[in-house]
Amino acid sequence: MAENKTSERAAVSKAVDAVVVGAGFGGLYMTHRLRQAGLSVQGIEAGYDVGGTWFWNRYPGARCDIPSLLYSYTFDDGLRDEWRWSEKYAPQPEILAYANHVANRFDLRPNYLFETKVIRMAFDEVKQRWLVETDRGDRIEARWVVTATGCLSQPKAVDIQGADSFEGESYSTSRWPHGSIDFTGKRVAMIGTGSSAIQSTPLIAEHAAKVTVFQRTPNFSLPAKNRELTDQEIAEFMAGYPAYKEALATGSPGIPLPPEGWAPSEAELRQAAEHLWSGDGLLSLAVLPNLTRDERVNKIGADYVRAKIKEIVKDPELADKLTPKDFPLGTKRACVDTDYYATFNRDNVELVDLRETPLVEVNATGVKTTGAQYDVDVIVYATGFDAMTGALLNMDIRGRQGRALREAWADGPKTLLGLQIAGFPNLFTVTGPGSPSVLSNMITSCEQHVDWIMGAIEHMRKSGKSTMEPKPEAQEAWVRHVNEQADQTLFPKANSWYMGANVPGKPRVFMPYVGEGYKVRCDEVAAKGYEGFELA
Ligand code: NA7
Question: Model-level pTM?
Answer without folding.
Answer: 0.97
